[in-house]
């Protein structure tokens, strides 16, 4: 079945822009990215839209459809009524470059601020031995496709530009959690996540989890466990007393 | 920073001209949460200070009065299992040693935090809907930094759950009729089982029981417990709402039996 889809696409750049109305043919089984490609092919050859795999694995085509952060390639047209007007805008947390393409370099800057995997200094190459039970938790976080939808929807930076220097965002707080939960990582990730990456700014309202196209339980499995570890190290006198008596450091106590 | 230069209207971002473009009923979940929580708070406050109809059939003690430790509990012989030492005052609930901690347990709960930050504080009311506040410091400062006491109120909540369990068990014994089973017993039992589900599915419990470990393989028992609690934890929000309902239902049942409005149906004895 072919029908006419009604679209309002944001066109413009950092200097300004507006929502522009279009009517495009749509076929059964298509996704929003298909419609944008047809729009590009038939009416607006200069429409800028970032995409790559069209299979929900590269994380390139992040945008906002009817105000909700989504992947263009994973949003089926069938979830909307045929007569419904679809409003497509770029992600609204990052600076726009042109049309639906944003400058996501904020995320790469945050990624570089996280010290890489730090194994024990006396552990040589080829000596890494881990059991599945020890790495199961952090494997969930490896599913991340870096679409930055969680970063886009997080109100800490979406609604407060001034928080960007202090807050890494859910994707990179999850990266710190991944390293902290790694059985062979010995860096002090707990102090780092609170002091350098702004975990305390997160108020666990779970929008990051809600928009994750990979279904990663970012809040329950990464952010809250990290908040609990911060509570261990900073706000729990019983834990402090136990560690003092047993003369164990933060990392040793978790062994 | 003015409203025009913050948030989605900050310089450099796409000038869309609308604070949100969501077309669904995004306001419904926070509105429903507000109504649900307010109903519970009003009901619980009225009942906690009513100091009447809290003990029925000489064996059913409502969870809002457990443990009953006020001198006022003497008005219902058999309701005080742990002594009576608090003064009988209209502004002091009979279970004043447990209620503040249970309130704190729910206030600092990771699920309820999400619920009231969204519904009462609108930070944010819904995903990708701008919040109304000019500045935001999250949980980095007083008073919200106190959310970190959650694990301590969890420990106390476990003790109160043990007391609720004791109440549910001793309710099977009538002072004159011996072992009996009534509808009220089943109500108390269901309530206490669900209270345990809510308490044990807590994120702090998950962390304390095993989540803080770096090597699960070195602690197989704690790993197994963590696995069970993790399964429960996925339904923490559901248990949070169900237990608000069962607490009200249990209390209402005791209230209605104690006031003589309904009679407890005995199944055994």
Automatic annotation (TrEMBL), chain A:
It holds the Pfam family Fer2_3. Its cofactor is [3Fe-4S] cluster; [4Fe-4S] cluster; [2Fe-2S] cluster. Keywords: 2Fe-2S, 4Fe-4S, Iron, Iron-sulfur, Metal-binding, Oxidoreductase. Residues 5-92 form the 2Fe-2S ferredoxin-type domain. InterPro entries: 2Fe-2S_ferredoxin-like_sf, 2Fe-2S_ferredoxin-type, 2Fe2S_fd_BS, 4Fe4S_Fe-S-bd, Beta-grasp_dom_sf, Helical_ferredxn, SDH/FRD_Iron-Sulfur, Succ_DH/fum_Rdtase_Fe-S. Pathway: Carbohydrate metabolism; tricarboxylic acid cycle. The keyword Oxidoreductase applies. Belongs to the succinate dehydrogenase/fumarate reductase iron-sulfur protein family. NCBIfam families: dhsB (TIGR00384), PRK12386.1 (NF009052). This is Succinate dehydrogenase/fumarate reductase iron-sulfur subunit. It comes from Myceligenerans pegani.
Automatic annotation (TrEMBL), chain B:
Keywords: Membrane, Transmembrane, Transmembrane helix. The chain crosses the membrane at residues 26-46, 91-112, 152-172, 178-199, 239-262. It comes from the Bacteria. This is Succinate dehydrogenase membrane anchor subunit. It comes from Myceligenerans pegani.
């Amino acid at each position: 079945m072919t029908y006419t889809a009604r679209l309002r696409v944001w066109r413009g750049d950092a200097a300004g822009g507006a929502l522009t109305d279009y009517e495009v043919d749509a076929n059964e089984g298509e996704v929003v990215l298909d419609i944008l490609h047809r729009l590009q092919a038939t009416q607006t050859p200069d429409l800028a839209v970032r995409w790559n795999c069209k299979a929900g694995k590269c994380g390139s085509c992040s945008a906002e459809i009817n105000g909700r952060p989504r992947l263009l390639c994973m949003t089926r047209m069938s979830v909307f009524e045929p007569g419904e007007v679809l409003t497509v805008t770029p992600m609204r947390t990052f600076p726009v470059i042109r049309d639906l393409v944003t400058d996501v370099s904020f995320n790469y800057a945050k990624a570089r601020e996280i010290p890489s995997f730090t194994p024990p200094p006396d552990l040589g190459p080829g000596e890494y031995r881990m059991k599945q039970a020890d790495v199961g938790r952090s494997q969930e976080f490896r599913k991340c496709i870096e679409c930055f939808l969680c970063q886009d929807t997080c109100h800490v930076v979406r609604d407060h530009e001034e928080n960007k220097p202090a807050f890494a965002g859910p994707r990179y707080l999850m990266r710190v959690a991944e390293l902290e939960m790694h059985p062979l990582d010995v860096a002090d990730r707990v102090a780092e996540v609170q002091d350098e990456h702004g975990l305390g700014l997160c108020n666990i309202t779970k929008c990051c989890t809600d928009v994750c196209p990979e279904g990663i339980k970012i809040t329950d499995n990464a952010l809250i466990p990290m908040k609990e570890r911060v509570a261990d190290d900073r706000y729990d006198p019983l834990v402090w007393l136990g560690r003092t008596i047993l003369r164990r450091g933060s990392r040793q106590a978790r062994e | 920073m003015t409203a025009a230069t913050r948030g989605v209207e900050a310089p450099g971002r796409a000038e869309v001209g609308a604070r949100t473009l969501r077309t669904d009923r995004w306001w419904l979940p926070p509105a429903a949460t507000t109504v649900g929580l307010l109903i519970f708070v009003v009901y619980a406050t009225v009942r906690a200070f009513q100091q009447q109809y809290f003990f029925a059939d000489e064996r059913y003690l409502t969870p809002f009065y457990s443990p009953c430790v006020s001198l006022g509990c003497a008005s219902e012989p058999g309701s005080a299992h742990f002594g009576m030492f608090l003064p009988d005052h209209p502004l002091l609930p009979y279970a004043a040693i447990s209620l503040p901690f249970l309130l704190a347990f729910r206030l600092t709960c990771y699920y309820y935090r999400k619920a009231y930050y969204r519904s009462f504080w609108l930070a944010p009311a819904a995903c990708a809907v701008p919040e109304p506040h000019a500045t935001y410091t999250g949980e980095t400062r007083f008073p919200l930094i106190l959310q970190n006491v959650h694990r301590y109120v969890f420990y106390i909540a476990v003790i109160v759950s043990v007391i609720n369990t004791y109440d549910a068990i001793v309710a099977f014994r009538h002072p004159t009729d011996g072992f009996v089973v009534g509808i009220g017993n089943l109500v108390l039992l269901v309530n206490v089982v669900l209270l345990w589900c809510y308490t044990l599915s807590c994120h702090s419990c998950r962390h304390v029981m095993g989540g803080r470990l770096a090597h699960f393989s070195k602690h197989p028992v704690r790993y197994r417990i963590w696995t069970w609690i993790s399964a429960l934890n996925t339904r923490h929000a559901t248990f949070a709402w169900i237990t608000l309902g069962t607490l009200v239902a249990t209390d209402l049942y005791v209230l209605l039996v104690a006031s003589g409005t309904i009679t407890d149906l005995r199944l055994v004895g």
